[in-house]
Write a structure and sequence with these properties.
The complex is a heterodimer of chains A (79) and B (175). With 79 residues, chain A is mainly α. Chain A is built from 4 helices and no strands. In chain A, helix 1 (6-18) packs across helix 2 and helix 1 (6-18) crosses helix 4. Chain A is globular and about 25 Å long. Chain A starts with 5 loop residues before the first helix and ends with a helix. Chain B is 12% helix and 32% strand. Chain B is built from 2 helices and 22 strands. Chain B has helices at 3-11, 14-25; strands at residues 28-29, 34-35, 41-43, 48-49, 54-56, 62-64, 69-70, 75-77, 83-85, 90-91, 96-98, 101-102, 116-117, 121-123, 128-129, 134-135, 140-141, 146-147, 152-153, 156-157, 161-164, 169-173. In chain B, the strands form 4 sheets. In chain B, strands 1-4-7-10-15-18-21-22 form an 8-stranded mixed β-sheet. In chain B, strands 2-5-8-11-16-19 form a 6-stranded parallel β-sheet, with no helix packed on it. The longest helix of chain B is centred in the N-terminal third of the chain and has 12 residues, at 14-25. The termini of chain B are far apart. The chains are: A mainly alpha (79), B mainly beta (175).
């Protein structure tokens, strides 16, 4: 897997989980900007990301993921 | 309805039920709760039953563990399959736990006249059930689960699962 396609795949997962077009998920998009990104949505996203990438995120990482870029960074750390 | 059931359900002062529950089980039942005294009912010490919660156990075993807190406005009714709620559980306001289902396979008869089925409900220790959730007959909820508000659960949930929706699905496993 090339490092370059991870952000796109993460955005695709997030768009799918939150039901929003990927164009709304810019690198700096934060949790507070998407009504769909609530606490349950956050956990669903983590579960789907872990299945998609075959990784396991720590609770600390899960708690710190508050923007698209931080989600990408957390996933990339495990690849 | 049998005379004994009528007396227990309608004529016993609630404060007497609360006193009996404290003396017998060392649990706290609000005088504003409606807890039917029955040989099927067991409540563990330190548990709390909130106001306006109704518990019917005349038709089947109902066991509530130790230190389990049932908030206000809940409805818990057991049938032949029984209901078991573990220790240290939190049951939020307006939760329904209904241990039976009507059959509805005869299209020509009113559903209310068809028989019940009751597989029973098991809720393990340390489960948190959010406000307004419905736990249906056949539910088997593992230890440490969280059921989010207004979810509907009727199947098996593995331990530490966080469940949401109707039908309830595990969206995350606590770690």
């Amino acid at each position: 897997m090339s490092g370059g396609d991870v952000p796109d795949r993460v955005r695709a997962v997030m768009g799918d989980v939150f039901g929003v077009p990927e164009e709304r998920l810019r690198e700096a998009t934060g949790r507070g900007e998407l009504a769909e990104w609530d606490s349950i949505g956050h956990l669903r996203m983590v579960t789907v990301l872990e299945e998609e990438f075959g990784v396991r995120l720590s609770m600390e990482e899960i708690g710190e993921m508050d923007s698209v870029s931080s989600v990408v960074a957390a996933v990339q750390r495990h690849l | 309805m049998r005379v004994g059931v009528v007396v227990r359900r309608f004529l016993l002062p609630r404060s007497l039920v609360s006193l009996r529950a404290y003396l017998r089980y060392r649990c706290l039942v609000s005088p504003r709760a409606e807890v039917e005294l029955s040989r099927h009912l067991r409540i563990g010490p330190g548990s709390v039953i909130g106001s306006f919660t109704k518990i019917k156990s005349a038709n089947g075993p109902l066991r509530i563990g130790r230190e389990t807190h049932v908030a206000t406005g809940c409805f818990i009714t057991s049938h032949a399959g029984g209901i078991e709620i573990g220790d240290d559980c939190l049951v939020g306001p307006n939760v329904s736990i209904v241990g039976s289902n009507y059959r509805y396979d005869d299209i020509d008869r009113p559903i209310r006249l068809q028989r019940h089925t009751s597989e029973g409900i098991r809720i393990a220790d340390n489960v948190w059930i959010g406000a307004g959730a419905a736990i249906l007959d056949g539910a088997d909820i593992g230890e440490g689960c969280i059921i989010t508000p207004n979810s509907v659960v009727g199947g098996t949930i593995p331990r530490n699962g966080i469940v949401t929706g109707n039908p309830g699905r595990v969206v995350f496993v606590r770690r």
